[in-house]
Amino acid sequence: MDRAADALGRARQIALACHINPDPDAIGSMLGLAGYLAARGKDVVCSWGNEPFEIPRWMSVLDGRGFVVKPKEFPQAPEIMVALDTAAPERLGMLGANAAKAAEVVVIDHHRTNPGFGSIVVLDPAASSTAELVYRLTERMGGELPDQAAACLYAGVVTDTGRFQYESTTPETLRVAAELRRHGFDHARMAQVLFEDSPLAYLRVAAGALHRLELVPEASLVWTYLTQQDLERARATMADTDDLIDVVRTAREADVAAVFKQQRDGKFKVSMRSRGDHDVSKIAADRGGGGHRLAAGYTAKSSVEESVADLVRALEASKAA
Length: 321
Ligand SMILES: [Mn+2]
Description:
CATH topology of the largest domain: inorganic pyrophosphatase (n-terminal core)
CATH class of the largest domain: Alpha Beta
Oligomer: single chain
Distance between the termini: 36 Å
Strand content: 15-25%
Bound molecules: manganese (II) ion
């Protein structure tokens, strides 16, 4: 943390990136840090490595759009690059090449599966969110945190803690959230945009997925899947379905919930959640993915049927262990 504060304090131009298909912690921690650094007179630029590059709808409640450039316009060999909420270099997508050429790479992250890539690593798996870590970094560096930057960090904390309900929510998380809430921003409106803004198309896709729900009692698993055809039929996008796992996970009968989502290339991405009896980050990491103890994901190598069978075996083995 001291080395990161020192490097960012000395730099004049700072390039910030977060993981591909960014969630509000990725973008919130990035824009929050960018807003803080800009207020200190730094030249900042932000991006993420998706192609095509799309601005998520909920970003409308976050200030800092002006810092964002397309990945092609991101500095090729930055003097200093910050990777936020990024569990592995591959998660930078096309900006991985820029990180490889950067003189200094500061990694700020809370994923326990992060191998600690980068030249300066601020990694705390006990932190609720990357935004919480960024707030602590700004405290360490001192000076003013602009209201808009505080709002961005708050968005990261409130979403990654599931509105302060996950086990990662510590007294320190609540202290950080309280400090952020002292700043002037409309948190109720932010919550509406972040949590209560589903297109009808998503609700229709969710209805179909819930209709297909399967329970595997011996593995304490409840699962369902979504195909590209489901999305096309309802005119929904994959990004619209991010919250589906949060509905599936409420099933009383299972410890682990999984949603298999077919990507454009035909492969299925698997999102997993555990109520506490299974370490799903280990199952994900064994399959080339990553995440947290109770929330993790990976890309399946085979069909849904075979992948479910594989997951069931993994869950039964982890119970036996
Ligand atoms: Mn995060």
